[in-house]
Amino acid sequence: MSRPPLPPFTQDSARQKVRLAEDGWNGRNPEQVAQAYSEDTQWRNRSQFLHGRQEAQHFLAEKWAKEQEYRLIKELFAFTDNRIAVRYAYEWHDDAGQWFRSYGNENWVFNKDGLMTQRYASINDLPIAESERKFHWPEGRRPDEHPGLSELGL
Predict the structure, then answer these.
(1) The CATH number of 11-136+148-152 is which of 3.90.320.10, 3.10.450.50, 3.40.50.720, 1.10.10.10?
(2) Helix, strand counts (H, E) of the chain
(3) What is the pTM for the complete model shown?
(4) Residues of the chain with pLDDT > 90: what percent?
């Protein structure tokens, strides 16, 4: 299975890969999103360590059950042949209605087929008031005209 764009990355293909990842995660379909990762993918997400596509899929299902009205923006930070670094922020609320903006950085490694083999994520959650939200679009893909992180001053 191939998941373009494929390494080695250029500035344009790395940006495209980041936007495709953002679009997938905003779709919040664990089965579909998990297909972007190799069968033997290795993750560190905060303090959790995941091994394999099935664990990643299970993790995503639990994540999006907890993080309601999830909206994510990713931005390319750096890239090389088969590696991409991103920074991102996402907004969500919990069962009690408390809103959060979560800030993070990820380092990604891809195989020759464009599947992510390693994902290392560091994330911090900031409680916010609903009035402080900046990500306003219908659930799903962020519209092209919606500002990115840099334009929002994040």
Answers:
(1) 3.10.450.50
(2) 4, 6
(3) 0.97
(4) 99
